[in-house]
Amino acid sequence: MLETKKSFCRFCHVFCGVEVDVADGRVIAVRGDRDNPVSQGYTCLKGRAEAERLYHPERLLCSLKRDGEQWSDIPSGDALAEIATRLRDIVDRHGPRSVAVYVGDGGHRTSAADPSFVRKWLDGLGSPGLYTSFTVDSPSLSVAINRLFGAPLPLAVFDIANADVAMFVATNPVVSHLMSMPQSNPFARLRSAQQRGMKLIVVDPRRCDVAQRADVHLQVKPGEDASLLAGMIRVILEHELHDRAYADAYLSGLDALREAVRPFDLEYVAARTEVPAEKIREAAILFASARSGAAQSGTGLHMARHQNLTTQLVMTLNALCGRYDRRGGMTRNPGVLTRPLPAEPGPLRMPLFSGEETHVRGIKGIFNWQGLREMPANTLAEAMLTEGPGRIRALIVNGGNPALVFPDSERVTRALQNLDLLVVNDLFLSATARFAHYVLAVKHPFERADVPKLMDVTFPFPFSQYTPALVEAPGDLLEEWEIFWDLARRLGIELDIPGIAMDRKPTADQMLDGMNDGSRIPLDEVRRYPSGHVFGDAETLVGGVVPDMIGHPDRRMAVGHPEVVAELADVRAERVVADGGYDDPGRFAFRMITYRMPEVYCTQGQNMPSLRRKRGYNPILMSPISMRAIGVHDGDDVIVESGHGRVAGIVESSNDLRPGVIGLAHGWGDPLGPADVRERGTNVQRLIPQAEDYDPVTGLAQQSAVAVNVYPSRAAEVPLRAPEHVA
Ligand code: SF4
């Protein structure tokens, strides 16, 4: 019998509402749910292909144990007992700090075992070792927020429905579904805003999907965003286009900022960014003259040079133009499953640093975007390899794939192989799971109950939804929370979760209830609406945050923060080089940027047949002019070389890139080295060092705007001199 069930997709963070056809206990079709107030029937190709993931022939249906090169099936109860024994032994010999958990994107989307749950598990054990994907690509957000506001502000939603201008910097929300956009059906939201008259500015080295719709596209040279943004700010201040009343009331350090951007005249900025001065001026005036709007940054910026500075300069544009806590700007969704703010909220007392420090490079732990104490993921591999009191000897990977997404894959694989215990919770034998001692097979999202907690305050209005499990899980499969709860029980750890005891296994619903205790709307109320429900007005809130929740003692946004001023001076002092390199002219001809592929979500989807048919690897995008310059054609094999490593890849022409720039998506390839790139793709992380070119505050490696050379794989050696890009 065919039955249609309401649920939401959890392939990515957007949580689009879906209708799922189930016949004889099997999912046979997935489509958008038109009754869902947020997504209104929208799905993308990945969500519609979820049944392929659910019934994939390589999906793990029982847990595995590795002995040398041999894998054998193991009942999940036996695996958990053995893992607990080994954890106990490691803790007894080396202390709780030797145990860490990495939560990847998949782990963020299991609400009963999300990073806040894992934080509680680690707190019970006594370890600071929570690492998440946030510090893989965006810790600059924490730094910039702390510098500018002195505390996190609950203004997570860009009110694009009421904006007169939108500016996207190094983000392509049409594909990435930027969390603050708001994210579902981004193309339709943009189109309707533009039809209403909203102007769109895009800063991106690639003429990406959103840039193709832009009124002004600033095709900046990769890695030069700091100069571009400083130049825009200078224009705005020079012409007094900023919101003077807002600035007088809520900003500090305006004179210091004015002085710091003074050296970024448009002649200099144009030479450095390769964007015409007139276009920069036009964008600055357009952004500042609009009555409402906001600028948003994405991972393309957060992973490139000077990321703390550039992230803050994007926020500074919003601050100067009075866009925080204003209709059409950055606004507040009070959330549904989030705890309510007090009636008269003050600043959240949350410094940048958590008080913990790694024993490598002296990089400190931070409070992440969810307010959790987190250690910097870009130091994790070193922390596994480096002797000392903080050496990580046991790692649990919850829904992540560090072997493919951490910089310097070679070192990461060495580190994973160096562990006394590696446990991976996954649907598949992923690139990381291959190095594990145990792989715990987990349930597919359609086999478990859930709520969209991750997006609770970034939906376009206060919305939530509950889904029960849609189909029964086959085989001996676990939910992620069951793994941690069972290990806690065996290790004698108490979990500080309301209603959760350690002598009686809870149900999934009891765990969801405990994790959402004290929510603004009780979870039982959310459970009443199969397609989800809007709990309040269908819009975000403005007012009451600025200045009340600003954390600086003067309750002002520090646009002239001394660290920003100092970093702007550093940028201005850099040598301007004409080619693709940085301070070594002539050595590198290209700068490599990242881009996102609509067929995959990080490393997920690469093995799904219908998605692979569209693109089964990550091509190296390059302008036809550059291709002619190095003598390659579409589909040719090429070698990409950085100062750190070299990888093989397949070139694909793209008129969306300028000469001297290549695009390569992250998360593909084989961590162990060369593989059939047409089958597995190119592992970009082999080009990126972890501990050479990194941010001193967060430890984040520079993973975009990387200086590289590209040459035909038939060439015997790297050309001594980079080719010139001539038309
Ligand atoms: S955007 Fe696509 S993958 Fe993400 S939740 Fe929606 S349908 Fe699923």
Structure described in brief:
The chain has 26 helices and 29 strands. The chain is of the alpha/beta class and 727 residues long. It folds into 4 domains: 53 residues, Phosphorylase Kinase, domain 1; 220 residues, Rossmann fold (3-Layer(aba) Sandwich); 192 residues, Dimethylsulfoxide Reductase, domain 2; 135 residues, Beta Barrel (Barwin-like endoglucanases).
Shape: globular
- Give the strand order of the largest sheet, numbering strands 1, 2, ... along the chain: 5-4-20-19-18-6-7
User: In angstroms, what separates the terminal alpha carbons?
Assistant: 63 Å
**Class of the largest domain in CATH?**
Alpha Beta
Tell me the structural class: alpha/beta
Bound ligands? iron/sulfur cluster
Catalogue the unreliable spans. Answer: none
Overall mean pLDDT stands at 94
Measured as a percent range, the helix fraction is 25-40%
What labels would you give this structure?
single chain, 727 residues, alpha/beta, Phosphorylase Kinase, domain 1, Dimethylsulfoxide Reductase, domain 2, 4 domains, seven-stranded mixed sheet, six-stranded mixed beta barrel, binds iron/sulfur cluster
Write up this protein.
With 727 residues, the protein is of the alpha/beta class. Helix content is 29%, strand content 17%. The strands form 8 sheets. It has a 7-stranded mixed β-sheet with strand order 5-4-20-19-18-6-7. A 6-stranded mixed beta barrel has the order 24-28-25-27-26-29. β1 and β2 form a beta hairpin. The longest helix is centred in the N-terminal third of the chain and has 19 residues, at 76-94. 59% of the residues are buried. Iron/sulfur cluster is lined by residues 9, 11-12, 14-16, 43-44, 46-47, 177.
